[in-house]
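Exercise 7. Given the encoded structure of a 511-residue chain, write a plausible sequence.
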């Protein structure tokens, strides 16, 4: 099977499933032989250029606003190592190990394109660390996304290069970098000309966060549609709003797919379309394909942009050895995080809407005069209890928190580096917030699922001959015991379902 083989890094063929497999599932990686020749050619040019009398940014000059300062070739190694050490200025809680592993894979893949001029040994070392389970400790805050994710990648670089600084996780222990690499039997490197730039100049922290978020959002929108179908059925909804001819009149791909999924989930239900004379439902039911379809389309767009970024060179200068002329180093701005920052803001807005409409359906389930004669708060009649009031309150709090996280980080820019970097992306903040919003939204969907399953159980208690939809029946069988368990707290039930969703288990069960 392809999943059992090492993932080949060649700078051109990485995709989101491959990244997730390495970052979260421990799939091994290897450098494709076809990539090595390109790296060696660009490295040979850099080594020759380092001794050239002509100024070449970052090779024989300083960095940023210090680009006017010439550097003696004998100091190239010190220049690179000083760059990494000085830029390791991150703060805050460490990024998750899956995010850092994704960063490592992404940086290795970008360097494998052969346009950075670094030692091929840097890529080999990153791959060896991935395969051995050495994961640098990378603080989550401190990157503006331009010139790339300087601070996060520098903390990664501390582990690669020789020196006393840096930390890494290895076999469950947080160790000094040198100890972790020694235990893993991976030699640390002496950096040379341009190697410091090659390690640090890229948007890989942003892209790692966003790529994993896109993967998770793809799973979550499926689960949100299952939650919606459960609520629509419990609320005796009308399915005419999901008819294929309806959505052919406004043919957004996401809405068409969502409506089809709802029809599939609700097929055969005797609860839907059971209220005589009902013309249409409230927006949170009737407009589910429109809203979640737009979420689907947003995810599709973001995934397409991320796919480009996965196999992009994000460095400065670029070393393009096939170009004419003696100076093959091109100063440009491909490290700038704007493409990913805008996508992260878009994704966060879309996932926020997914949570918002989920909470509105839950509110109808728990509100007596809106719930098609369900018990107020979904409270059982045989005992005094508050039912599902507080979980709905939790969902409301989460949706409000999502709104507070929704401000588009990409709109902000604070100049840095003596105004050399006078427009920055703030893409890392945008991507980090996207992961936070996803976590909140997954909890909201879990709460809706539990409320809807409980409501459907109550319908069946009253009408034993009720037949559920082909897909909703599977979801009820999965979650009814948890929804009706009165020996646990709602928090415990929510955590159980959220964990089920976060593993992609509901999507697998419904396949």
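Solution.
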């Amino acid at each position: 099977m392809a999943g059992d083989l090492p993932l080949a890094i060649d700078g051109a063929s990485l995709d989101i499933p491959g990244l997730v497999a390495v970052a979260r599932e421990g799939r091994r990686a290897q450098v494709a032989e076809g990539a090595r020749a390109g790296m060696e050619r660009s490295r040979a040019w850099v080594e020759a250029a380092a001794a050239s009398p002509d100024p070449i940014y970052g090779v024989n000059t300083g960095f940023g606003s210090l680009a006017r300062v010439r550097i003696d070739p004998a100091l190239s190694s010190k220049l690179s190592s000083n760059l990494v050490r000085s830029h390791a200025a991150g703060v805050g809680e460490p990024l998750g190990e899956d995010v850092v592993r994704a960063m490592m894979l992404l940086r290795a893949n970008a360097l494998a394109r052969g346009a950075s001029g670094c030692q091929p040994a840097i890529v080999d070392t990153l791959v060896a660390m991935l395969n051995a389970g050495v994961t640098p400790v990378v603080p989550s805050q401190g990157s503006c996304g331009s010139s790339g994710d300087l601070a996060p990648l520098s903390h990664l670089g501390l582990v690669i290069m020789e020196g006393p600084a840096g930390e890494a996780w290895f076999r469950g222990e947080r160790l000094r970098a040198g100890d972790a690499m020694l235990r893993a039997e991976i030699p640390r490197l002496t950096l040379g000309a341009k190697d410091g730039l090659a390690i640090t100049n890229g948007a890989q922290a942003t892209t790692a966060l966003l790529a994993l978020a896109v993967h998770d959002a793809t799973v979550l929108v499926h689960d949100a549609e299952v939650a919606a179908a459960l609520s629509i059925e419990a609320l005796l909804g009308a399915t005419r709003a999901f008819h294929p001819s309806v959505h052919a009149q406004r043919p957004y791909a996401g809405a068409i797919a969502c409506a089809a999924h709802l029809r599939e989930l609700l097929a055969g239900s005797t609860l839907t379309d059971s209220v005589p004379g009902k013309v249409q439902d409230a927006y949170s039911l009737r407009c589910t394909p429109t809203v979640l379809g737009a979420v689907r389309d947003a995810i599709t767009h973001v995934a397409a942009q991320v796919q480009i970024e996965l196999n992009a060179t994000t460095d400065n200068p670029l070393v393009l050895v096939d170009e004419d002329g003696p100076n093959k180093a091109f100063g440009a701005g491909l490290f700038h995080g704007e493409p990913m920052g805008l996508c992260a803001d878009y994704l966060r807005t879309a996932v926020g809407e997914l949570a918002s409409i989920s909470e509105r359906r839950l509110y109808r389930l728990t509100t007596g005069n809106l719930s098609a004669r369900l018990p107020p708060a979904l409270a059982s009649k045989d005992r005094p209890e508050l039912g599902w009031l507080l979980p709905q309150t939790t969902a409301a709090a989460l949706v409000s928190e999502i709104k507070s996280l929704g401000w588009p980080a990409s709109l902000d820019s604070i100049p840095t580096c003596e105004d050399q970097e006078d427009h920055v992306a703030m893409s890392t903040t945008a991507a980090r917030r996207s992961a936070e919003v996803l976590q909140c939204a997954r909890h909201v969907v879990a709460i809706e699922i539990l409320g809807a399953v409980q409501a459907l159980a109550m319908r069946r208690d009253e009408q034993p001959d009720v037949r559920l939809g082909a897909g909703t029946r599977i979801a009820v069988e999965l979650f009814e015991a948890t929804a009706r368990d009165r020996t646990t707290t709602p928090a415990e039930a929510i955590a159980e379902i959220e964990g089920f969703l976060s593993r992609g288990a509901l999507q697998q069960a419904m396949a």
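Remark. The two ends are 20 Å apart (CA to CA). Students should compare their own answers with the one above.
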